[in-house]
Amino acid sequence: MSGTVTTVSSNGEYSFTKPNRESITLLAGLGVEGDIHAGVTVKHRSRIAQDPTQPNLRQVHLIHAELFDEVAGAGFDVAPGDLGENITTVGIDLLALPVGTLLRLGDEAVVEVTGLRNPCLQIEAFRQGLLKQVVGRDADGGVVRKAGIMSVVRTGGVVRPGDLIGIELPAGPHRRLERV
């Protein structure tokens, strides 16, 4: 199983969306160079309010381009970077990956999957009704989060659109992604 990076995005200021870039540089243990969410400890405002000393398990946000097609079918125009992601992918079922999966991005960079993005009300402010498209319920009533996955940088490097993504599943039993 492999995929491709379609778009990379970053923003040095707190903003819901992130401008697309020609490349981003991932820094081991920190995140995307120059991005407001880079750091060893939490950088998301809601997480800082809870406990600013928590480890940052949300250094790099990845989202699957297939989600944009899905929400377009419901009438929503969403493009790469619009939902605040750093890396947009195609060809990988990101949501099905287990915790601890390593994603090799291009020639050097490696991120470790930590969990699911927990979509917030900012998505609703961005496009009214969109939150219901990216958070739903399964047949058993369980919450289904579709707004991408979060990761930490294990090995730094430059990531560009067109880079291949290699997947290395962790040893042991499959640990399902939970919100982080």
Number of strands: 13
Percent of residues in helices comes to 10-25%
Low-confidence stretches: none
Assembly context of the chains: single chain
Q: Give the overall silhouette.
A: globular
- The chain-level mean pLDDT equals 95
Number of helical segments with 4 or more residues: 4
Radius of gyration, CA atoms, in whole angstroms: 15 Å
What share of the residues does DSSP label as strand, in percent? 25-35%
Q: Largest sheet, if any?
A: 7 strands, mixed, barrel
User: End-to-end distance, in Å?
Assistant: 25 Å
Question: Which structural class best describes the helix and strand composition?
Answer: alpha+beta
Spatial order of the strands in the main sheet? 1-6-5-11-8-7-13
What does this structure look like?
The chain has four helices and 13 strands. It starts with a strand and ends in a 12-residue tail after the last strand. The mean pLDDT is 95. Strand 7 and strand 8 (109-116) form a beta hairpin. The chain is an alpha+beta fold and 180 residues long. The chain has helices spanning 45-50, 65-72, 121-126, 130-134; strands at 2-9, 20-21, 24-27, 31-32, 60-64, 87-90, 102-105, 109-116, 135-137, 143-145, 149-155, 157-159, 164-168. The longest helix is centred in the middle third of the chain and has 8 residues, at 65-72. It is 14% helix and 32% strand.
Summary of the model, kept short:
With 180 residues, the chain is of the alpha+beta class. The chain has four helices and 13 strands.
